[in-house]
Amino acid sequence: MRINLFSYSNLKGNSQVQYVAASCIGSLLAVALIFFWLSISHAQTAKPGDIQGKVIDRKREKPLVAQPMILTVHKVDTVETQETTTDENGHYRFGNLPLDPSVHYTVSTVYEGTDYTEKDLVLSTWAPNITLDFDIGAFTDDKTQVQVKTHTFIIGPPPADHAPDGAVTVIEAIGVENQSDLPFQTKHRTQTVGLHLTLPIGTEGFQPHSPTSLTMNPATNAVILTAPLPPGESQLGYTYIFHVEKNRLNLSRRLDFDTAEFLFFVPEGIGFAPRAKFFGTPRREQIHNNVYLIYQSTAPKAFEAGETVDLTLNVNMGGTRGALPGQTSNLGQLILIAVAAALTGGFFVAALFKLRSANNNTASNTDDVTAPPDAGWLRKLNPDDCEHVRIARLEFITYLDDKYEKQEISERVYKRLRREQTERLTTLLEQQKRGNNA
After folding, report:
1. Final residue in a domain of this structure, among 80, 109, 136
2. Bigger pLDDT: 412 vs 29
């Protein structure tokens, strides 16, 4: 109850009001004291609590007998465990548990390789007993109940310590929904899993993010969720390394489940764009100080399980839909330099070395090969593309200086690459000057 002190003070001359107000306050104090006394009395006389329940095997509709059960007691500074087993009727009980709101409990069991867990259980004087039943083995394997709502790809530079071979980092974030009331399980070859998703051929350096229990089966090139997929929506995420080949980043794969939509997040300024026609015009968004072009699929219906979907990214320039095999090596060189300019120095070096090996594959010693001049293809560029190349050249020269200062590359390699990049930068600046004077 809230008392308006202003109104009360203005009416203090009225004895009847004073009496009513005093009686009200006195009643409140009495109720509070009684409540406080009952709380202390109840806490002093309360018995310890318990957590109990029944474990049922839903495959056979019978209680599980002698099933091991584990209670984890999470205290402020310690974690303790207790163990028991179910009786002939499938019942279990953990007793003599303290009624402390700062303590919480976890009950778990493992059956046929699957974990069943209930977390964050709290006992108090007002709720000293919890009944917790476990339904074991109740799963669905109906794939029509599972749909990938969104499958998102984020393109970025490779790790700084990755070999200079033209790689990129691919992040996949997947929102999947189990529309059944039961957890979903399926078979991947002979293994019972919660989910399996095919990866593109050539995946390297797989790293799970959410959940961290995700694994990759290298024999089948698939992401594996070992635990059952719970009902409702779940988020999966992982990262891997992939390579640009023939001016394309081919992330195509066969779908394991119906998929509603695909999205590509591509850093602005690089020439990656989806080849498939079901991707519409990208929208531009700034995320964490980075600007992305977001390509979203616009197919009229979901992509069906079993379908092979074209998820190829063409590396293109000047608004074209892709640089096709057979185009000049100069254009391919321009494309990957533009990619590098928009990403980190590490990716630039990777792209450069990939280009050098591709352009000089007939040479026995690439370090002694004279680089082709830039003037021819520079004349074909628009001003924005020229600026990308200029930034890339400067970044690489700075990168070389840093590597040489740290004695991470030899003097011979440093001088040769720096001279080459300086000459190319000079050619570019002259081309830009001529363009400005035209």
Report:
1. 136
2. 412
How far apart are the C-alpha atoms of 151 and 226, rounded to whole Å?
Answer: 20
CA distance 293 to 388: 17
Mean pLDDT of the chain: 76
State the residue range of the domain holding 270: 144-315
- Counting beta carbons within 10 angstroms of the beta carbon of residue 165, is it exposed (0 to 12), middle (13 to 18) or buried (19 or more)? middle
Tens-place pLDDT, residues 329-364: 333 333 333 344 434 333 333 333 333 333 344 333
Task: Specify whether 376 is located in the same domain as 422.
Answer: yes
End-to-end CA distance of the chain: 82
Contact 358, 329 (CB under 8 A): yes
* Separation of CA 385 from chain center: 32
CATH number, domain at 65? 2.60.40.10
Q: Are residues 192 and 280 in the same domain?
A: yes
Asked whether residue 196 is assigned to any structural domain, the reply reads yes
d(CA 174, CA 149): 8
* Least confident interval from 57-61, 278-282, 294-298: 57-61
Total count of domains within the chain? 4
* pLDDT higher at 108 or 22: 108
Which pTM was predicted?
Answer: 0.52
